[in-house]
Amino acid sequence: MWRQLRKICILELLSARRVQSFRHIREEEVGRLVAAIAESASSNEAINVSERITALITDSTKRALIGDRFEKTEEFLQMLEQTVKLVSGFNLSDLFPSSRLASFISGTVRLAEETHRKTFELMEYAIKQHEEGRDGAAADGEDLVDVLLRIQKEGGLEVPLTMGVIKAVILDLFNAGSETSATTLQWAMSELLRCPNVMHKAQAEVRHNLQGKSKVTEDDLANLKYLRLIIKETMRLHPAGPLLLPREATEPCKILGYDIPKGTTVLINAWAISRDPKHWEDPEDFKPERFESGIVDFKGTNFEYTPFGSGRRICPGMIFAEANMEIVLATLLYHFDWELPGGAKVEEVDMTEKMGITIGRKNDLYMHALVHVPPI
């Protein structure tokens, strides 16, 4: 089943062609973002950049997954937010798994079961909507629920796609696709605030390439090489998933003097490796130029840099994540100049981390925006 689902993800759900078909969604959402920020900038309000970015990525991902027809979006997003909190939060029963008292006191198991039930009910409602309306849908206009239902209908799979599997796939894709991209973009803006020279260089590149244009489109992204270096460096310093998916030792081995028996579960600390001075010069510094040579990439072949993992379990959503992050960052840098509220110094940017499914900012990032290119 795992191999089959991965094949479906790579060839159907998250292929370059499929991601390209969602281009209009990304461009519409960044257009709304620009308008909202420009309105706040006109009244000199401090903007909660974390909140704005998270809302944009969430809406873009939701539309790609289940489309625009789903009217219970708010309830669905609340359930997903609750799921993330449950998975990443403290749970007393994890410390005492055999204790019924610990489970009762924490209430986490009951809450998890209730959240799971409500989430799957909402997913079932969304799927029924798609079943009723998919007959006239063109292939290029499919969202990911449409794709999964089409594959289910066509059959020919080694293991049939059940409704339970379809729900689980959609929920996994949503959580993985929204949380990680939003976290990376927040860290990128944080680092750019701390490194004004890097921000000015990136803005100069974007504004030179888009000179005279009223908005950023995905056609404009191909020549923004420095912008992509910034995203790479952000993922090095702040990998959204600090621990890669667990592996299992297929044979006995020795690591740092420790004997690792066959069958041992092994966790790889990508965060520590990407800051290891053995592999990186000045590893704690934000230097996008370190990737200019193009030798090191995140496709999983350079083991000192694996923000998307490596091997057969490398993240199949790399193209989806790249597409989301590039247009959002380019848009923020093209339309606005950014500074800290209240005349704060760059050294005062709060970079405190919060551990969860991803390593995000503990506190939201607030910034002042000055409109450089007004929205149309």
TrEMBL record:
One of its GO terms (molecular function) is heme binding. It is found in: Membrane. Heme binds at C315. GO terms for cellular component: membrane. It comes from the Eukaryota. Keywords: Heme, Iron, Membrane, Metal-binding, Monooxygenase, Oxidoreductase, Transmembrane, Transmembrane helix. The keyword Cytoplasm does not apply. Coiled coil: none annotated. Its cofactor is heme. It is a single-pass membrane protein. Belongs to the cytochrome P450 family. This is Cytochrome P450. The lineage of its organism: Eukaryota, Viridiplantae, Streptophyta, Embryophyta, Tracheophyta.
